[in-house]
Automatic annotation (TrEMBL):
<dbReference type="GO" id="GO:0017150">
    <property type="term" value="F:tRNA dihydrouridine synthase activity"/>
</dbReference>
<dbReference type="InterPro" id="IPR018517">
    <property type="entry name" value="tRNA_hU_synthase_CS"/>
</dbReference>
<dbReference type="InterPro" id="IPR044463">
    <property type="entry name" value="DUS2_DSRM"/>
</dbReference>
<dbReference type="GO" id="GO:0005737">
    <property type="term" value="C:cytoplasm"/>
</dbReference>
<dbReference type="GO" id="GO:0000049">
    <property type="term" value="F:tRNA binding"/>
</dbReference>
<dbReference type="Pfam" id="PF01207">
    <property type="entry name" value="Dus"/>
</dbReference>
<dbReference type="InterPro" id="IPR013785">
    <property type="entry name" value="Aldolase_TIM"/>
</dbReference>
<feature type="domain" description="DUS-like FMN-binding">
    <location>
        <begin position="1"/>
        <end position="240"/>
    </location>
</feature>
<dbReference type="InterPro" id="IPR052582">
    <property type="entry name" value="tRNA-DUS-like"/>
</dbReference>
<keyword id="KW-0819">tRNA processing</keyword>
<feature type="region of interest" description="Disordered">
    <location>
        <begin position="477"/>
        <end position="497"/>
    </location>
</feature>
<keyword id="KW-0285">Flavoprotein</keyword>
<keyword id="KW-0288">FMN</keyword>
<feature type="compositionally biased region" description="Polar residues">
    <location>
        <begin position="481"/>
        <end position="490"/>
    </location>
</feature>
<dbReference type="GO" id="GO:0050660">
    <property type="term" value="F:flavin adenine dinucleotide binding"/>
</dbReference>
<dbReference type="InterPro" id="IPR035587">
    <property type="entry name" value="DUS-like_FMN-bd"/>
</dbReference>
<protein>
    <recommendedName>
        <fullName>DUS-like FMN-binding domain-containing protein</fullName>
    </recommendedName>
</protein>
């Protein structure tokens, strides 16, 4: 659930009935080098990576009694240090001993611990004895039932609160069947609660969750992919329409300033095959959280919440400084500052290069090169600096240096940002250039908006010519409780189309 189980998704899971919610796995070294910040604007506690300034763990009071911090570690003392850092803010700490990914294995974490019982004992015992919150762990099956039971007995002796068991081995993948029978055998010989995991392929409704639990003889069930696809599977009353789930998730993303890339990734996993519809393709074109929200008609909510957050932060450019959450609509909303440094004239403005805002023929460096060539100017001369893994670039044209005050994650993008500043300073482009999508840069969003406008202008209840319905009830619907299972996906897809 990397990039999915951030605060917005966890809060939605709580709303839909989850008893416990787990964070993404966080590596001990990353947590140890972080700094904690009370975010008064959002009402959260943030842990920030000092190397790049990103928030990688954000939590709030609403989830305090339900959130379990998932830790990747291979060292007992580092694990305890992390445990002490998060202890006041979480309901429990879980050690991931089942991740089969290469980065975990090479670091001696995750599934690498399955064959190191004494290290497992050391880590868990240290945590149980050193923390006041419950400690759990998650494992995968070993090659044989006997080996797995032996390891589980060692874990039980460490007095952990529970053990989660994924019913596949380290080398098996989701296409392999989950060994429910082996989980049941293990649960029968342990005295601590067993949490069954790995059954998403056989869970398509709320009733299937309890069926899976019974087949595994477990105390509870841990869901990943089936909840990621439609989190309302957690509701005893049944599924909600997918668009309702997405809207709920996006509202939390706005409220808690979730990173654009994480938000988009989570919605992609909800849409799945619906990404091939017009709405889905328009969504794939998005480059900011604001654009995603527009597709789900949350424009007004986004703007009002952003205004509230900015007032709390007392920083008008916060949404820009934090990356691709939103950009001002034009250069009129930012300052172009000119100053002299050691005899060098420097022109700066805050703008971030968003590739999707440009057509191939109007990229900033291309336009600047053309201007320099036609006017026989000196340049362009680019230079770079790297700060905490982020790039800053400047470009000198005819003796004047131009630079964006915002950093980029790539050298190429930082150069495009510097070129954009030059184009605006020389008034070679319009005020919205780089701030808003160029005409034609959002093909499917344009189709979606055009068809929506046609529908609004028509008084007919059913417009045959319109392939994409805006579904006016998305804006003013009162969601009716639905017990519809995944078999209704066909009709749901028709609504998207």
């Amino acid at each position: 659930m990397v990039r999915v189980c951030t605060l917005p998704f966890r809060l939605m899971a709580v709303d839909y009935g989850a008893d416990l919610i787990y964070t993404e796995e966080t590596i001990d070294f990353k947590m140890i080098r972080s700094i904690r910040r009370d975010n008064e604007a959002l009402g959260t506690v943030d842990f920030i990576d000092k190397s790049d300034g990103t928030v990688f763990f954000r939590t709030c009071d609403k989830e305090r009694n339900k959130v379990v911090f998932q830790l990747g570690t291979s060292n007992a003392q580092r694990a305890l240090e992390v445990g002490k850092m998060v202890e006041p803010y979480v309901a429990g700490l879980d050690v991931n001993m089942g991740c089969p990914k290469e980065f975990s294995i090479k670091g001696g974490m995750g599934a690498a611990l399955l064959t190191q019982p004494e290290k497992v004992r050391s880590i868990l015992t240290t945590l149980v004895q050193g923390l006041s919150i419950p400690v759990t762990c998650k494992i995968r099956l070993l090659p044989t039932l006997e080996e797995t039971i032996k390891l589980c007995k060692i874990i039980e002796e460490c007095q952990v609160a529970a053990i989660a068991i994924h019913g596949r081995t380290r080398v098996e993948r989701p296409n392999h069947p989950n060994h429910n029978d082996m989980i049941k055998e293990i649960a029968q010989v342990l005295t601590i609660p067993v949490i069954a995991n790995g059954g998403s392929k056989e869970i398509s409704c709320y009733e299937d969750i309890d069926k899976f639990r019974n087949e595994c003889g477990a105390a509870s069930v841990m869901l990943a992919r089936s909840a990621m696809w439609n989190c309302s599977i957690l509701r005893p009353e049944g599924y909600l329409p997918l668009e309702t789930v997405i809207e709920t998730y996006l509202r939390y993303c706005i409220q808690y300033d979730n990173p654009f890339t994480y938000s988009k990734y989570a919605v992609q996993n909800m849409l799945r095959e619906l990404q091939d519809t017009i709405r889905g393709k328009a969504f794939l074109e998005t480059q900011t959280l604001q654009e995603i929200c527009a597709i789900w008609y949350l424009d007004d909510f986004f703007k009002s919440e952003l205004t509230r957050q900015n007032q709390a932060r007392k920083s008008i450019n916060f949404e820009v400084k934090n990356g691709k959450t939103a950009l001002p609509p034009s250069a009129d909303h930012v300052k172009i500052e000119k100053r002299e440094v050691d005899g060098q004239i420097v022109v700066e403005m805050p703008i971030q290069f968003i590739r999707g805002n440009f057509n191939n023929a109007d990229l900033p460096k291309m336009l600047l090169n053309t201007h320099i060539f036609r006017n026989e100017l000196d340049g362009p001369h680019y230079s770079h600096s790297v700060v905490d893994k982020f790039f800053s670039a400047s470009v000198v044209v005819d003796g004047v240096k131009y630079a964006s005050t915002l950093r980029e994650k790539s050298k190429r993008y930082s150069e495009q940002g510097a070129a954009t500043v030059c184009l605006h300073a020389l008034e070679l482009v319009g005020k919205t250039y780089g701030f808003s999508p160029a005409e034609g840069a959002r093909k499917y969003q344009h189709i979606l908006n055009t068809n929506a406008n046609v529908k609004r202008q028509s008084n007919e209840s059913n417009i045959q010519d319109v392939k994409v319905e805006k579904e006016a009830d998305w804006k003013k619907r009162k969601v009716e409780t639905s017990n519809v299972k995944q078999t209704n996906e066909v009709s749901q897809e028709e609504n998207y189309r």
